[in-house]
Write a structure and sequence with these properties.
The chain is of the alpha+beta class. Helix content is 54%, strand content 12%. Among the domains are: 84 residues, Phosphorylase Kinase, domain 1 (2-Layer Sandwich); 182 residues, Transferase(Phosphotransferase), domain 1 (Orthogonal Bundle), CATH 1.10.510; 143 residues, Rossmann fold (3-Layer(aba) Sandwich). The chain has a 6-stranded antiparallel beta sheet with strand order 1-2-3-4-6-5, with helices on one face. Strands 12, 13, 14, 15, 16 and 17 form a 6-stranded mixed beta sheet that branches. A 3-stranded antiparallel beta sheet has the order 7-9-10.
Length: 745
């Protein structure tokens, strides 16, 4: 067919094939536009009566004019009598292809469901029943618009109301019970199929399955599907009720119209759709908000700097536990340390309504601490207090100040909120200072910094064996060491698991520990439901823990829920807008969502703050490479390598970029360097796979990915939906690996 001209259509390439025919992309030589031609199987055109009925139905469907319906331009036949349909040709992918990359984010599923519903409502109003609604018959254009395909196969129910009994046209997994039995059907069969599609978008697989068609039909007629909320705990129970109503066995118990269905979805929108990054920021600004600045050391010896930072840090952590109170993160607030700026300016830069500042003065064994809460709008004091205490009472002072501030901001506290606020991390001041230093080095993200952080966290738990955050710090260091290729993931995650278990043994209500466990379950255990449960538990305990939002955004990216991933990384940034890690993660979530220009812009913002920051340069390389800006990509990867020399992950990406940009000899040299490096440190097979990917040596790519599976490398999870492996994503070997990881059905 390719190269032939049928009527005035020159066939260019094959787009796809299904049970109802083969689709080709073609040029309309008269109107100079791209179209899609679907050639129907001969058995649908040999019967004159069936052919006439099909032509009448196609004529009726082609009269539909709606932005969510792919209109039919014409129906015609070749000189050999083969019937074909000419329809619009769109860039993008089918919903089936989108679901194959992983379950959709709730926001994305809602948006698509609303569009499908509007298109179906238009068809039903014209008396047309689709009868073959399924993800393969929904196109998602490059602009994100859902288009229902194949209305030419629909039944004009307005003329006969029901499909003739005994006819079972359609696709088994999406058939209604009456359709599966060959009974008469009407528009409610589309509502059933619509419910199946919504279920599959959220779960990643349809609700009724079996090894062969009759098994699927038996399940449709007799089984109740697993509750969607048991598969997707992030979805509210109400959406489960909507799906159940669509999937009632008796058509009389289903929705009376698609409009009823979409109305219920629309009413739920505010409750179950994740807030967009912009709306999240606007909504959070309506809450009481505060920034806690580092206290000033007014002691003669100026030897209380760590205590000054420590009390501010503890106040931030305590206040962040309170629901309904927005607290600026430590990194953002501490940038103003020792700067004589007007508090009103500080508050506006941090986007908060109030600022707490204070001072510490030590005289012998006595401390005088002053604290004052200032209204950013007018600069007036809302509250101030002095505290004279012995050094041994410093934790009691922190508790007292925290409770006083929250009482002022929110009125009477619930008993539970008070208990959260006064919960202490450690009674040992030195252990706490070591913990703070460890977090500083952990945030640098280069190999030397992580090693230093491990030492400091280890010293903290040696000083205070009950310092649960210290154990979390150890776990976070090993988690990062695994994903950034600083050490063998099997060794790193064993140490990480041990540390998290110790933290939870000490304090099962520590949000940081649950977030770290969520990371482990994502990037090592490949326990997708368990990972999400841990992240949601962390948010229950502390919704203001920015790092948990950052971890969760990566999980969502792995699952292909890119809208939600971006919203979570935006939430982390909102909580701590100048944190270099969060700014870098925002860039990588944009790359994940294929928004490469926006990712490059975000990388530049991060590099403006610190041109040598490791993650920003690494992630910047991804964005540039996806735009085929190879010089810029290699420059970014090289800068990352200079910060963390000899890192095999960065070397792998450099080799990939070299090969993809045509410098294959240099890429092969990089492979040799990785082999040599493996004699002295762990070099994962994934890093070698990257170079082979650039060299287009697919067999070697999959040999390395199989080894990476055995090595449990974190990046295998990332590449489930990350653009870098798009060229081999449809290869059965890639799909097989993802299935073994539980990422594809």
């Amino acid at each position: 067919m390719i190269g032939k001209t049928i009527s005035h259509y020159r066939i260019l390439e094959k787009l796809g094939e299904g049970g109802m025919g083969i689709i080709y992309k073609a040029e309309d030589t008269k109107l100079k536009r791209m179209v899609a031609l679907k050639f129907l199987p001969p058995e649908l055109t040999r019967d004159p009566e069936a052919k006439e009925r099909f032509i009448q139905e196609a004529q009726a469907a082609s009269a539909l004019d709606h932005p969510n319906i792919c209109n039919i331009h014409e129906i015609d036949e070749t000189s050999e009598g083969q019937l074909f349909i000419c329809m619009a040709c769109y860039g993008g992918e089918t919903l089936k292809e989108r679901i194959a990359r992983g379950p959709l984010g709730i926001d994305e599923a809602a948006r698509i469901a609303m569009q499908i519903g509007e298109g179906l409502a238009k068809a039903h109003a014209a008396g047309i029943v689709h009868r073959d609604m399924k993800p393969a018959n929904v196109m998602i254009t490059s602009e994100g618009v859902a288009k229902i395909l194949d209305f030419g196969l629909a039944k004009l129910s307005g003329r006969t109301r029901h499909t003739k009994a005994g006819t079972t046209l359609g696709t088994v997994a999406y058939m209604s019970p009456e359709q599966a039995r060959g009974a008469a059907v009407d528009f409610r069969t589309d509502i059933w199929s619509f419910g199946v599609i919504l279920y599959e978008m959220l779960a990643g697989a349809p609700p009724f399955r079996g090894e062969y068609d009759q098994a699927v039909i038996y399940s449709i007629l007799n089984d109740e599907p697993r509750s969607i909320t048991s598969i997707r705990p992030d979805a509210p129970g109400s959406i489960g009720g909507i799906i159940e109503k669509c999937l009632e066995k008796d058509p009389e118990d289903r929705y009376g119209s698609v409009e009823e269905f979409t109305k219920d979805i629309e009413q739920l929108e505010g409750a179950w759709r994740p807030i967009s990054p912009r709306n999240a920021m606007e909504k959070s600004k309506e809450l009481p908000s505060i920034a806690v600045l580092p206290f000033r050391d007014m002691s003669a010896a100026r030897d209380q700097d760590y205590f000054c930072e420590g009390i501010a840090e503890e106040l931030i952590n305590g206040l962040a536990q309170i629901a309904g109170l927005r607290v600026a993160a430590r990194t953002s607030a501490f940038q103003f340390k020792d700067k004589d700026l007007d508090v009103r300016r500080v508050g506006k830069e941090l986007g908060v309504a109030s600022v707490l500042e204070g001072s510490v003065r030590k005289a012998g064994t006595r401390l005088r601490i002053t604290a004052q809460l200032i209204n950013v709008a007018d600069g007036y004091h809302l509250w101030s207090e002095k505290y004279d205490r012995d050094l041994e009472d410093i934790f009691a002072i922190q508790d007292e100040i925290s409770l006083a501030i929250v009482e002022k901001l929110r009125g009477k506290l619930l008993k539970e909120e008070k208990s959260k606020l006064v919960k202490r991390r450690t009674e040992d001041e030195e252990a706490y200072n070591l913990y703070l230093k460890g977090r500083y080095y952990w945030n640098r993200r280069h190999e030397g910094g992580i090693q230093k952080a491990i030492e400091l966290f280890q010293q903290a738990v040696e000083k205070d064996p009950l310092c649960a955050p210290g154990y979390v710090g150890i776990a976070d260091c090993y988690n990062v060491s695994a994903i950034l290729a600083f050490m063998d993931p099997r060794i790193a995650y064993a140490k990480s698991k041990e540390a998290v278990a110790k933290a939870l043994e000490i304090d099962d209500d520590l949000a940081e520990a649950h977030a770290s466990l969520g990371w482990i379950k994502t990037f090592y255990d490949w326990d997708w439901a368990g990972a999400e449960a841990e992240f949601l538990r962390a948010f229950e305990l502390n919704s203001n823990y920015a790092t948990a939002h950052y971890f969760y955004s990566l999980y969502l990216g792995v699952m292909g829920r890119h809208d939600e991933s971006l919203a979570e990384s935006s939430r982390a940034l909102e909580l701590d807008p100048i944190d270099l890690v969060f700014n870098s993660v925002q860039a990588v979530t944009l790359v994940w969502g294929r928004r490469f220009d926006a990712a490059i812009e975000q990388v530049q913002k991060t590099l403006d703050m610190d041109p040598n920051f490791y993650l920003a340069n690494l992630y910047g390389g991804f964005a540039f490479a996806e735009k085929a800006m190879w010089q810029e990509a290699l420059g970014a990867f090289t800068r990352a390598s200079e910060v963390s020399p000899g890192n095999p992950l960065v070397m792998g990406f450099i080799g990939w970029a070299l090969a993809a940009s045509g410098r294959k000899k240099d890429a092969l040299e990089m492979l040799d360097r990785l082999e040599e490096l493996s004699k002295t440190r762990f070099v994962g097979s994934y890093h070698k796979a990257l170079v082979h990917l650039g060299l287009e040596a697919d067999d070697r790519v999959f040999e390395c990915l199989e080894s990476a599976f055995v090595e449990k490398e974190s990046w295998l999870a990332i590449t489930h939906t990350f653009p870098i492996l798009d060229d081999v994503r449809s290869d059965p070997r890639f799909i097989a690996i993802m299935r073994r990881m539980g990422l594809q059905k």
